[in-house]
Design goal:
With 792 residues, the chain is α/β, with parallel strands linked by helices. The chain has a nine-stranded mixed β-sheet with strand order 4-3-5-2-6-1-7-8-9, with helices on both faces. Strand 7, helix 17 and strand 8 form a beta-alpha-beta unit. It is elongated, with a radius of gyration of 36 Å. The two termini are 43 Å apart.
């Protein structure tokens, strides 16, 4: 006899010892247990309450006579009662359900109140039942120790998905399949994006090829690429080419007026394509799908016949193991690309990246471009997960590498100090925590592409290349238990599941309450429900009219705020331009030219101040406007039937928090390097006698640069408006649906109970509800455990 059966036998033996003062137990078979499992909880409690004292009463009860005849084909006897008690206890133990035990204890209390059993008899039975409950809790507590998880995210996703699939019938029973499907779909569609950046020839392609284990970038399919490439997973390989739009091309041509490198780019492109340029540069950005083998014809700086000049970015779909689990790799153009628009595209893509890998040639130390880029994404992009990979580390000693790291960290701090950032202290802490990993990228590539012997001949094992440390870092930052994105995704999923579980439990408890009512009461409630639904439909129509009026006024007020933000940007345009002119005029009067550092500092501080103040002013006023709008419409929804006021309050509070988060975290205007580079170039060709010509250039430059800023501000406000409109509509629609659904759920519950009562299957239905409740409570416990882990 195994340990579990021994425990069950001991509990049953204790029952007959306490209730009957006998050491023996009846003999039954599995058929007896199977038959008894069809009965209800009321019957279980009644039979367990039988003993020698009250048996004379029991044997005359019609229900007992009927059950003895049905189950054993005989009249009631104490021996038959004991067989049924044995079968009931064994069945309860097998169910391993604390909820069934709680229900039986509750019924025993009811039987004592009805004088069916005495207090001492009830306590004896309770003592036995508590042993079953105790065994259940001990079994639940003895869970395996937590082990080190290689992919914390995927392991939790698998566990959640398995629970959902295992209990799909429960969600179907309460018409919640669509809600569950949305959760599973959101899990499957999660993306984890890795951005790889660096100046030209920093070794990006080599490192990426080593990471994905295939020479697909730079040295093979895309030699000397000048375009941003996003690698995504797909079973069938393909590439999608995205060309510049007409507006983007016009902006590039405007920049060409002030930057010789961009002017050469434009001239070269027009000479090459002439009138055929219109085939590629269209009003809306043109996209085409091609075979991967053709990619070099569009992206190679040497082999594309300048067609790469017209390509904005590329989506490359590959069947690579590394890209599974939703991983995407962004291979960016060099940061020192003369076409500043490519740098801006890179920065916009990085907004969606979870981790940035920035490559620096260890032998050349940190360039000014490296320093400026890292500081920019720290200040303006809300990106804090940055790994710096020192390439060509095999050319330096350990001490030299350490010197490079210290020099780079100090350069970051000096740049922060120069910018006088209000976030300086927090950013310095982030800089101090940035990890540096020295690599020998080509040696790693040899190992990863089945050419290990070549690397070994040069004295490099795989663990010496640094690639394993990079992979470990990415695994930790993307999927580890301390990954902020992993925590956020799991937290949202768990909270949504808990809402669904709470919904089901509420409906189960409501069904249980309805079973206590008679048919007349149920029919009366059905009529009342029909009237409430009709009234609610009319109420929803009236509310939608009021909300439409409030929304129209809200939009008008938002447009006024938009004008204010544009005015603030243009105000700082004049302030910053005058500072630049004053800087140059002073330097010219001193027979000097201003330093590049002073030009950059003046522009960066002026633009940053303007952007910060414009956005802060807009966000503050917008959130106040939204607050009054939501307060106004909230009062309408209190009039709806069957919708809880706490639900309304909590939904609106969460809505406000999400909007506040959107406003604070969505980048407003990206600072373009175009302005400072153009002023520096203009400075080189002007002197004091030509200050008026220089001033004219500055006016044009600021007009072009701030036209772009205003355009981006409009874009940001439009994106914000679309987001707010969608989330507002989602919240309001949720209120309408909640009100209507709750009435429909009430109606279906009433119909179900009436049907069950007519079919006389109350015991079976009750056990089904208890089973549902048990499983959902298990699910709650499991999800709360995950939440506890990720919020500690």
């Amino acid at each position: 006899m195994d340990h579990q059966n021994k425990e069950a036998y001991q509990i049953i033996s204790n029952f007959f010892s306490l209730i009957y003062s006998q050491n023996s137990t009846p003999i039954i078979n599995e058929e007896n247990i199977k038959n008894i499992s069809q009965e209800g909880l009321d019957f279980y409690a009644i039979i367990l309450a039988c003993n020698r004292r009250n048996f004379e009463i029991y044997k005359n009860i019609p229900l007992i006579q009927q059950k003895c005849n049905n189950l054993y084909n005989t009249l009631p006897s104490l021996d038959i009662i004991q067989k049924m008690q044995y079968a009931i206890l064994k069945f309860i133990i097998q169910q391993h359900s604390w909820k069934i035990i709680e229900e039986i204890i509750y019924r025993l209390t009811t039987l004592r109140a009805a004088n069916i059993i005495e207090y001492e008899e009830e306590q004896r039975i309770r003592a036995i039942v508590r042993q079953i409950r105790f065994q259940d809790r001990i079994s639940s507590a003895q869970s395996p120790k937590k082990r080190v998880q290689e992919n914390y995210f995927q392991e939790n996703i698998i566990g959640i998905t398995q629970f959902i699939n295992k209990h799909s019938k429960i969600f179907e029973a309460y018409s919640l399949q669509e809600d569950i499907h949305k959760i599973i779909h959101s899990l499957q569609e999660q993306k984890f994006c890795i951005g790889v950046t660096g100046v030209i020839s920093s070794g990006k392609s080599t490192l990426l090829n080593a990471l994905i284990g295939k020479e697909i970038l730079g040295t093979s399919v895309i030699p000397e690429t000048a375009n941003l490439t996003v690698l995504k997973y797909a079973q069938e390989e393909k590439a999608i080419i995205h060309f510049w739009s007409e507006d983007e091309w016009i902006n590039i041509k405007k920049v060409a007026e002030f930057q010789s490198g961009v002017a050469d780019f434009i001239q070269q492109t027009h000479e090459k394509f002439g009138d055929s340029l219109a085939q590629y540069i269209t009003k809306e950005s043109k996209s085409i799908e091609i075979d991967v083998a053709q990619l070099t014809n569009y992206t190679s700086a040497e082999k594309s016949g300048k067609l790469c000049n017209l390509v904005k970015n590329v989506d490359l779909y590959c069947n690579l193991e590394f890209l599974k689990d939703g991983v995407e790799l962004v291979d960016t153009p060099g940061l020192d690309d003369p076409l500043t628009q490519r740098e801006e595209i890179t920065k916009n893509f990085l907004l969606h990246c979870d981790v940035i890998i920035h490559l620096m040639n260890a032998a050349q130390s940190a360039t000014k471009k490296d320093i400026d880029f890292i500081i920019d994404i720290l200040i303006n992009k809300n990106i804090s997960s940055i790994l710096i990979v020192l390439t060509h580390a095999d050319t330096l000693s350990k001490q030299e590498l350490q010197n490079v790291i210290e020099y780079t960290q100090n350069s970051f701090k000096n740049k922060l100090h120069e910018l006088q950032s209000p976030q300086q202290q927090a950013l310095e802490s982030i800089i101090q925590s940035i990890e540096f990993i020295p690599t020998a990228g080509f040696m790693a590539l040899l190992h990863k592409t089945n050419r290990s012997q070549e690397a070994l001949d040069k004295g490099y094992k795989l663990e010496d290349t640094g690639i394993l440390e990079i992979e470990a870092y990415l695994q930790k930052m993307l999927f580890g238990e301390n990954s902020q994105k992993t925590k956020l995704i799991l937290c949202n999923i768990c909270r949504n599941l808990l809402k669904i579980f709470h919904n089901i439990l509420s409906r189960i408890h409501h069904q249980q309450q309805l079973f206590a009512k008679n048919q007349e009461e149920l029919h009366n409630k059905l009529e009342e429900n029909k009237k409430n639904q009709d009234d609610n439909q009319q109420m929803i129509y009236n509310i939608k009219q009021h909300v439409a009026e409030a929304s129209s006024l809200f939009k008008e007020q938002k447009e006024t705020l938009e004008k204010g933000i544009i005015y603030k940007i243009l105000e700082y345009k004049e302030i910053t331009k005058n500072r630049i002119l004053a800087l140059f005029e002073y330097s010219y009067n001193q027979n000097n030219k201003p330093s590049i550092q002073s030009i950059e500092q003046t522009i960066n501080i002026g633009i940053q101040d303007g952007i910060t103040e414009a956005k802060r002013d807009f966000c503050y006023k917008f959130e106040r406007l939204l607050y009054f709008y939501l307060e106004e419409i909230k009062d309408f929804f209190y009039r709806l039937q069957n919708i809880d006021s706490d639900f309304i309050e909590q939904s609106l509070m969460q809505h406000k928090q999400e909007i506040s988060q959107w406003l604070s975290q969505t980048p407003f205007i990206d600072q373009s390097s175009f302005l400072q580079q153009s002023i520096i170039e203009s400075n080189q060709k002007h002197s004091k006698p030509s200050f008026s010509a220089f001033k004219e250039d500055i006016n044009k430059l600021f007009d072009v640069a701030f036209d772009v800023f205003v355009e981006r501000a409009h874009t940001w406000i439009k994106q914000t408006e679309i987001y707010i409109l969608k989330t507002n509509n989602d919240v309001l629609e949720n209120f309408y649906n909640q009100s209507q659904n709750s009435l429909e759920i009430e109606r279906n519950a009433l119909l179900d109970v009436l049907r069950e009562k007519e079919q006389h299957s109350l015991d079976e239905h009750e056990k089904k509800l208890i089973y549902y409740e048990e499983k959902i409570l298990e699910g709650e416990s499991y999800i709360e455990k995950i939440l506890k882990e990720i919020t500690v």
